[in-house]
Amino acid sequence: MKRTLLKITLGLSLITIGQNANGQCPTFNCLNDTIVSTAPSSCDAIVTFTTPTATDTCNPGGFQTFNYTGAMQTWVVPNGITSINVDAYGAQGGSNSPQTNVNYGGRVQADLPVTPGTTIYIYVGEQPNGLTGGWNGGGNGETGGQGGGGASDIRIGGTTLNDRVIVAGGAGGGGFWSGQEVHGGIGGGLTAGPGYRDNLSNYGGDPGTQTSSGVGTCQSFNNPVVAGGFGFGGAPSSCGCEGYGGGGGWWGGAGSGNCRGGGGGSSYTDPSATNVIHTQGVKVGHGSITISWGSGTPTITQIAGLASGSTFPVGSVTQTFIAESGGAVDTCSFVITVVDGEAPTVSCPGNTIEVCEGTPVSVAAPATADNCTSTPTVTYNTTGATSVSGNDSITGVLFNPGTTTVWYMATDAAGNVDSCSFDVIVNPAPAVSLDPFSVDSLCNYSDPIGLPTGTPASGTYSGTGVSGMNFDPSASGNGTFFVTYSYTDSLGCTGMDSTAIIVHGCAETNDLNSFADLNVYPNPSNGVFNIEVSGQTGQATYVLTTVDGRFVAKNEFAMEDVLTIDLSNEPKGFYVLQLQSAQTTKSITLIKE
Fold it and tell me: Regarding beta strands 367-369 and 345-347, do their DSSP bridges make them parallel or antiparallel, or are they unpaired?
């Protein structure tokens, strides 16, 4: 299973457990509890965290900040100290801009191994104010330009440039010329920032890197005469317009004439340095260096939980560490919780299910999948004319006529939900209007003495699905049904007769004496359809619509003739032709290709 590595940055929270009587008191900088999500399509997460740090608070050490003086400064490593933390800032480049120029110096943070009693040589960079480059490597400017900012560095074992073990790059000179901002390149980073005017297309001095200074602009682009070097920024001379110096650094940035900013100087750390952080363009003004030291580092051991980079399951895992120094122990615990935030998937059976009124509907449970739960819980409910709900599958449910939307919902163990829907379309069964009737009296006669004759008879319909003068096909089902009508005249003479009605499809009805025998050809057709009504005479009516109800045509026709429907000028698709006689109706679907 593919997993995505999740790198977690955990905050720090201080937990102090205690100390013993011998003065050794390790104290943890513990990590905060953290919540992460599972990797995509996975039920776990690979979590990377930083091992908590600890210090011995009974002898916490100290710190000293060195500011710009224009001269080398020194610091001697105290006894017992084998590691120092250095926070160094390079200087901002010079600026003649009335606006805000962001040619700020770089920053380096690192832990550096040292030997007690060693002299550390400290050089703090200067932000210049004029043509002369800042102390410790800033390149000079010319005419109305500005110099580059000086680097800040620490040297061990000597005072040459090769003895530098940490360097924070200075920024290139910048300013304002002819209504345009001249940007000095920001200092710091393994590769510093370039200088330019107004936008990067007006390129100036190249930035310093780990191996070179690059080129700048002096009468032409990419001119090496303004390049800086190892430890110093470049300086323009007779380049035209205003010239700006490059920032000092491990390698200084190139200077630039032609009113373009000088490049920033790069930062550097010795390979022995650890916990290194490079930050570009953060220091305003002169540089600075702060050295921090402690009395030692307690031994840290993890005693519970999973190692950094391990696969963490869904749920909570308590990570416990101990710090030991001089026999005293401090304990640190934090919790990493992996949550399942990925919803399951559920697939419904198509978009619609169409049935006739009175037909039970059964739908199998939908297919589901989830990254953690093997079988998500499935429920369903409906909106519309019918209100039903249940679990898994729909079995033998009668839906009301019309359209009912059915929603399936899949829920996994974490409460994540996905849903899908489909429509159940129930075509209603229309009632059939039966014709009123009357008959002559069966007892109609006249005798010699003039006895009265009987009056014409009238009667009522009866049978399955009959109510008054209506016949309801949905109450009878499909097949052939006989509707009986009976009558009695005024003299008490009775009679009975019946007619047959066919019910089929979606409660579609045909009187046996009307459209029982139809022939439609061709169907599908390119446009012309012929309809023959066999064995019938008399007038009938047809109504032609599209399947979505748009009216197309209506007219009368003689059932003994062939009815021709011409859809040549209509678009391709499905059309509904409804035929109506005095006895019944018939619907036909016509397909134009």
Answer: antiparallel
pLDDT digit string (tens) for 506-515?
544 444 445 6
The span from the first CA to the last CA of the chain, in angstroms, equals 49
pLDDT tens, residue by residue, 399-454: 877 788 887 788 888 888 888 887 887 776 555 555 554 444 444 433 334 444 45
List phi, psi (to 5°) of 231.
Answer: 95, -5
Q: Report all structural domains of the chain as residue ranges with CATH numbers, in order of start.
A: 5-60+295-339 (2.60.40), 62-293 (no CATH), 351-427 (2.60.40.10), 444-510 (no CATH), 513-592 (2.60.40.1930)
Name the residue type at position 434: L
Q: What secondary structure, in 3-state letters, does 357-397 show?
A: CCCCEEECCCEEECCCCCCCEEEEEEECCCCCEEECCEEEE
Distance CA 286, CA 306 (A): 46
Of the listed ranges 107-111, 118-122, 198-202, the least confidently predicted one is 198-202
Query: Quick one: three-class SS letters along 495-563?
Result: EEEEEEEEEECCCEEEECCCCCCEEEECCCECCEEEEEECCCCCEEEEEEEECCCCEEEEEEEECCCCE
pLDDT tens digits for range 369-380: 888 877 888 777
Interval 168-188 mean pLDDT? 95
| Cα distance between residue 15 and residue 301, in whole Å | 16
- Which two structure tokens, joined as six digits, stand for 552? 């197309």
Q: CA nearest 423: which of 507, 334, 355?
A: 355
Distance CA(215)–CA(192), nearest Å, equals 13
Rg of the chain over Cα atoms, rounded to whole angstroms, equals: 48
3-state secondary structure of 569: coil
Contacts of 493-501 spanning 24+ positions with Cβ under 8 A? 493/441, 493/442, 493/443, 493/454, 493/457, 494/442, 495/439, 495/442, 495/457, 495/459, 498/463, 501/432, 501/471, 501/473, 501/584
pLDDT tens, residue by residue, 221-274: 999 999 999 999 999 999 989 999 999 999 999 999 999 999 999 999 999 999
- C-alpha span between 162 and 231 (Å, rounded): 9
Note whether 222 and 152 are within 8 A (CB): no
Cα–Cα distance, 148 to 128 (Å, whole number): 7
| Identity of residue 247 | G
Q: What is the pLDDT of residue 447?
A: 36
Residue 21: both structure tokens together: 């009587």
Q: What pLDDT was estimated at residue 118?
A: 96
Residue whose token pair is 């007690």? 116
pLDDT at residue 13 greater than cutoff 50: no
Q: Considering only CA atoms, which of 507, 506, 502 is closest in space to residue 518?
A: 502
pLDDT digits (tens, 9 = 90+) for 336-383: 999 988 888 888 776 677 777 777 888 877 888 888 877 888 777 775
**Residues belonging to the chain:** 593
Structure tokens at 530: 């012929």
| Chain Cα centroid distance, residue 522 | 53
CA pair distance 340, 590, nearest whole angstrom: 53
